[in-house]
Amino acid sequence: MALAMENVMKVYNKQTDAYKMVKMDQTVTKQLSTIEETLARFGLLKNEIRVYLYLARAGEKKAGEIAEAIALHRTETYRILRDLEKKGIVFSIFEKPLKFTAVPLDKAIDLLVDAQKIKIKMLEQEKPSLVELWQSMPQAKTEVAKKELFQMLEGEQQVLMKANELLEKAEESFQIFAAADYLSELYYSDFSDKLKAQANKIEVSVVTDTSVKSAYFLGQMKWLGGGHRVSEEGNLPCFMIADNKEVLIAFHEKIQDGEAGKKKYRTAAIWTNYAALVNTLQILFSKLQN
Questions:
Q1: Model pTM greater than 0.85?
Q2: Is the CB of residue 268 less than 8 Å from the CB of residue 250?
Q3: pLDDT the model gives residue 4
């Protein structure tokens, strides 16, 4: 049996010596989609993921069988198999004709994580020499003047990193409006721990909606004391204001419906130090607070 990574799979019938297309179970399709999205975050390309997952499920296969099952050109399939071998998640079997096999998913994830850790460690080690090299280069003389800037961010990880950056830079105050879903994301990340630590140094204010979910998270964040308020307004995007100088506006964009009407979102955000927008959100936050 040959299994494709799409909404259909090829099934081989030995009696008729022919393939037939069979629609995959929607639950399996959804599960595979989740795995594919996760592996993509480790740097694997779409077709690399398709080849790996096919092998991981189907077992030992020849390159031609893989190419036919997932509708990929044979030359491209060979190239991808060699790339996956270099990553350590696919092996060649010394047989004639040549076959390939994949390591189990848990082992593949371990290998991909280790590879990312090595890259990060190497970059950290090279940082001092790279900075020194950069600073030794002739620099163009430019006037240092404050500019009003903005930056687009995409992905929950990137947004949280920017939120952490703003929080660490804040010297006087940090204000957050976060309805239940956003408050949940902040609570279950390391951001809430950093916010708690900063609350001992600066003024931290949190406004959320009146939902039961928000009430639960506020109950877990008793260290806020009187630094929180609830508002009837729950349809606004999450936003943060640091020292009344910078803002981060985060929002969820619906991209598709899953099974049973479950919504799927992508997280994105806009950061800016544009004074007019900062002041506008500051006024909005004050109204929500009251």
A1: no
A2: yes
A3: 43
